[in-house]
Amino acid sequence: MPIRVVTDSTADLPAEVAQRAGITVVPLNVHFGTESYKDGVDLSHDEFYRRLVSSPHLPTTSQPSVGELMEVYRRLAQGSEGIISIHVSSRLSGTYNSALQAREESGTSCPIEVVDTLQASMGLGVIALAVAEAAKAGAHLTGAVEVANNVIPRAEFFGLVDTLDYLERGGRIGKATAFLGSLLRIKPLLTIREGEAHPLGRARTRAKGIDRLCEIAEGFANLEALSVLHSTTSDEAQSIAHRLKHLLPKGEVIIARFGPVVGTYLGPEALGIALRHK
């Protein structure tokens, strides 16, 4: 009986990648006023970004309910020897805490382990993929948790945003407050460190920012996984993936899109790179 792998929609895993890996994705919620949507389920990316730009108010987000997570755990527990539930940083979302509560209240005899990755977007995604690969290879639950704990320090996410407005207004700016108040029109580069956003650098132009993203990625050797993300500029993501494919000659560079929850805080024209190194 195989173990089951669960993550949440902030991983920004393309649906076909998650399905192929056998990962169950639990959606978070996006709210435009009184209208609520399941992240990646009933609001398309294109429609979300259109509304994000045109709406006078920033949408809000919320974690899955404890009941929703319990339902997933109970369903997956049937015919499984264990569940590992891998989630976005607890410093960015309440999802991890909801998962802990759901585990305690699920009432199933199937053991469930909940992991706080201290990551987000495909920084979380590449961790979930490593665990799913171990599960497919026959890892038991204890071994899967060991894989997760081993991989977490080797997962990286860094990105380029067109503006800090969305992070600031959404309350997820973290240590990147160091950028605020600058009189220069810059393109901020950010990373996830210790579970929250940190400044990574600044570029005077978008082209220089993209160059810097690529330089950072090229500074890592022996990659196991690589993903390029975008919110609204797929052509740039394709170009970056082509530029960096030599870093992963035997694997697939995953091109992904920031979903509505992550996109709420990064905004349009954001780019990102996530990787897992040895």
Question: Can you describe this structure?
Answer:
- This protein has 278 residues and is α/β, with parallel strands linked by helices.
- It has two domains: 150 residues, Rossmann fold (3-Layer(aba) Sandwich); 124 residues, Hypothetical Protein Tm841, Chain: A,domain 3.
- It is 37% helix and 25% strand.
- The protein has a six-stranded mixed beta sheet with strand order 10-9-8-13-11-12, with helices on both faces. It has a four-stranded parallel beta sheet with strand order 2-1-6-7, with helices on both faces. Strands 4-3-5 form a three-stranded antiparallel beta sheet, with helices on one face.
- A hairpin with a 2-residue loop joins strand 9 and strand 10.
- The longest helix is centred in the middle third of the chain and has 15 residues.
- It is globular and about 55 Å long.
- The two termini are 29 Å apart.
Element order, helices and strands?
EHEEEHEHEHEHHEHEEHEHEHE
**Computed CA radius of gyration, to the nearest angstrom:** 18 Å
* Number of strand elements: 13
Report mean pLDDT, rounded to a whole number: 92
**Which architecture of the largest domain does the CATH hierarchy give at level 2?**
3-Layer(aba) Sandwich
Biggest pleated-sheet summary: 6 strands, mixed
Q: Given the structure, what is the number of helices?
A: 10
Quick take:
With 278 residues, the chain is α/β, with parallel strands linked by helices.
